[in-house]
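User: Run a structure prediction on this.
Assistant: Running it now.
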Amino acid sequence: MPCLLTPAPPHPESNPELHVVAHLIHAEFDDHLDPQAVDECLSQVAARFDDASIRSFVPLLVRRYTREELQQHLRKEPDLQGDPLSGAG
């Protein structure tokens, strides 16, 4: 998944319009993925909209695309915090 493989731009919560989005995404994915990886994905998706002249839908789009990428990653990868007896996590 591209958003988890490259270095992240600035933290998404530093952008006030994305503070709530970052909180919602972390609430949904931090139990399944490394929170730093979630931040990186959020930042990379948000960076796609840095030059958007109309900002109204940016939070909605960032949330949607970030969720899609993280869900896709979860479908490809086993749960990293799985059963310690199974060797995962």
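The helical segments are 19-29, 35-47, 58-76.
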